[in-house]
Write a structure and sequence with these properties.
With about 140 residues, this protein is mostly helical. Helix content is about 80%, strand content about 0%. The protein is built from five helices and no strands.
Length: about 140
């Protein structure tokens, strides 16, 4: 659950959440258009299924677009799906890597600060520092 919250915050902070939500709205709109334009797509659920299959480029083939409007919508859904498949994970991974770099720099600066004032550290602080060094060596 914590990972989902972190992912949500990253998407929201980077503006990718708005793009993702617009993608979902686009899929709903495209589904509605396909229900009106395609003879094989009778329900909104079938339209959503078709858009999902087209956006993820799975292409089961259980439903095929036969009208010009349906084919244009399919191309747009496919292109938008490829964009989303590439962008969302890329943003999340990039943001998370930056987060790890900042965290590592903070850890190193605290470690160096403690080393600079080594003679002033208490026995407990020295033990903690020694434990951190051992953990670092094991990694």
């Amino acid at each position: 659950m914590k990972a989902w919250r972190r992912c949500y915050k990253i998407l929201k902070r980077t503006g990718t959440l708005q793009i993702f939500m617009s993608f979902l709205l686009f899929l709903c709109g495209a589904s509605f258009v396909l229900v009106l334009a395609e003879p094989e797509i009778d329900t909104f659920g079938d339209g959503l299924w078709y858009c999902f299959v087209a956006a993820t480029t799975i292409g089961f083939g259980d439903i095929c677009a036969v009208t010009r409007v349906g084919r244009i919508v399919t191309v747009l859904v496919g292109l938008y799906g490829i964009l989303m498949t590439a962008m969302v994970p890329g943003v999340v991974v990039s943001y998370y890597m930056e987060y790890l770099k900042v965290r590592e720099k903070e850890t190193i600066s605290v470690f160096l600060e403690q080393l600079e004032r080594l003679p002033e550290l208490s026995k407990e602080e020295l033990e903690q520092l020694s434990q951190r060094i051992r953990e670092f060596e094991q990694k």
